[in-house]
Amino acid sequence: MNESLTRRLPYLFTALLVIAVDRATKTMVESSLSPWRSVSIVPGLFDLTYVRNPGGVFGILKNLDDGVRGILFTVVPVTAIVLIGAYAWRIPAARRVTQTSLALILGGALGNLIDRFRYGHVIDFLDFYWGTHHWPAFNVADSAICVGVAVLMLETLFTGEGVSSIHAPRGDAP
User: Fold this and answer.
1) pLDDT (tens digit, 9 = 90+) per residue, 49-81?
2) In a domain? residue 11
3) Is 127 assigned a catalytic role?
4) Whether 115 is catalytic
5) Residue at 172 is within a domain
C-alpha cells in the first residue's frame, strides 16, 4: 500500500465511524419511534423525536417541488463530497486537524446522502429546546458536519492554515 494512503487511513476510519454511528442511531430511532413521536430524555431540554426532513439542514428548502429538491439535495452533496475528497488528498496527511475536520464533514455528508438515496429524506431525531423555543431537530451526521466546519474555521482563524492555505506539494513548486 502506498505510504500516502497508509497515512490517511485514520481519516478514512473517522469518516466511516461517523457513517456507522449515524446509521446505527437512525436505525434505533426508526425501530423505536413512530414518525413525529417523541421520548423525553431531559424534560424541558432534550427529547428524541423522529423527524423525516425532506429539506436541507434545519429543514431549509423543504417546500421546493419534490423533483427539484431531489436533484438539488443529490447533486450538491455529491459535488461537495468529491471536492472534500480532492481537497483532503491535496492537504498533507500530517495536517491532522484539517484532515480530521474534513473526515467529519465527509462522513456526515455521506451519512445524510445515504438517507436521501434510501428514503428521499433525512432522518433527524436530536430535539433540543428551552420552554417553547425549539432548535430544529438534527442527527449525528449533521453534528459531525457542524463540528468539522467549526474546527476548520477555528484552525483558519488561529493558525492561518485552513482552506485558504493549500500549497503545492514539496518539489512541485516553481
Assistant:
1) 999 998 777 667 777 787 788 788 889 999 999
2) yes
3) no
4) no
5) no
